[in-house]
Amino acid sequence: MGNACTWRERRADETDEARAEAFRSAGLPPILARLLASRGVTEEGREAFLDPSLTRLARSDDLPGMTEAVQVILPFLHTKRKIVVFGDYDADGVCASAILVTALRRLGGNAEAFIPHRFGEGYGMTAASLERLWCEHADAALVVTVDNGISSPDEVAKLKVKGIQVVVTDHHLPGENLPKADALVNPRVQSCPGSADLCGAGVAFFLASALAQAATEKGLYTGPKFGGPLLVLAGLATVADLVPLKEQNRILVAQSLAYFNRCAPCGLRELRDKAARSAADLCPLVAPVTHPASQATTACKSSSPALSICAQASWYIVCSNPRRSPLNPSMREASWRASSRSSSVQASSLKAASAVAMRPAALMRGASRKP
Question: Is residue 317 within 8 Å of 263, Cβ to Cβ?
Answer without folding.
Answer: yes
